[in-house]
Design goal:
The protein is mainly alpha-helical and 98 residues long. Helix content is 64%, strand content 6%. Helix 2 runs antiparallel to helix 3. It is elongated, with a radius of gyration of 17 Å.
Length: 98
């Protein structure tokens, strides 16, 4: 999906900034479930610690991108994990097509 967004430099028809924000909440919930499963079933301390660090880093990245998308809707200048995204006028009435 990211290569499609990067090549087109625009959001696909099925996605909008609001959808991405909602999907990020779903991803955070899934990461929380994964964290619970790691804590419950992995007993070796170093493996558990490694998985916990990875899950927390992913959750932080998703949360940061989600908060950046809030400003994206009003400024029309979006980036998702470093990829610049153009929002068509039909996706966001606050943005003017240039």
């Amino acid at each position: 999906m990211i290569p499609e967004i990067a090549n087109v430099d625009s959001l696909p028809d099925w996605i909008s900034p609001e959808v991405v924000q909602n999907l990020s909440v779903v991803v955070l919930v899934i990461l929380g479930i994964l964290l619970f499963l790691v804590l419950r079933f992995i007993s070796k301390v170093m493996i558990r610690f490694t998985f916990i660090v990875i899950i927390i880093a992913l959750a932080f990245g998703v949360w940061t991108e989600r908060s950046d998308l809030s400003g994206c809707i009003s400024t029309c200048s979006c980036e998702i994990f470093g990829q610049k995204i153009y929002i068509p006028e039909g996706k966001n009435p606050f943005c003017e097509e240039s």
